[in-house]
Write a structure and sequence with these properties.
single chain; mainly alpha; elongated
C-alpha cells in the first residue's frame, strides 16, 4: 500500500483535529474581514492574502484563501497525518488568532 493513499479508518483524535483546524480557519476569516474592513489593510500580515485583497477585494480574497487552506487541511486529514495537522493548528492559533484577538482587545 502506498503511503499517499488515504486511510479509511476513523480517528476520534483526527476528527477533533480537523474540526478545530476548520474552526480556526473560519475564525481567522472572520477576524481578517472585520479587522481589515474596520482598521485597514495595514493590519494584514500575510503578503499573499494582502495581494489577493488588492486584486480581488476583501470578501472574495478572504473566502478564496480560507477555502484553499481548508481543502489543504482536509487533504492532510484524509491522508491520516493528524499529528502534523494538530501541530499546524496550534501554530496557526498562536500566529494568527492570538494576534487578531490582541488587536481587537486594544481597540476596545
Amino acid at each position: 500500500m502506498s503511503s499517499w493513499q488515504p486511510r479509511l479508518s476513523r480517528s476520534i483524535f483526527g476528527d477533533a483535529v480537523i474540526l478545530t483546524f476548520l474552526a480556526a480557519q473560519a475564525a481567522d476569516g472572520m477576524f481578517t474581514y472585520v479587522g481589515v474592513s474596520t482598521l485597514g489593510m495595514r493590519l494584514e500580515a500575510n503578503p499573499l492574502v494582502l495581494a489577493l485583497i488588492t486584486s480581488m477585494g476583501l470578501g472574495t480574497a478572504v473566502t478564496t484563501a480560507k477555502v484553499f487552506v481548508a481543502i489543504l487541511g482536509m487533504s492532510l486529514h484524509r491522508l491520516g497525518v493528524h499529528g502534523i495537522l494538530a501541530a499546524l493548528t496550534g501554530i496557526y492559533i498562536l500566529a494568527a488568532l492570538v494576534p487578531w484577538l490582541s488587536i481587537f482587545m486594544m481597540q476596545s
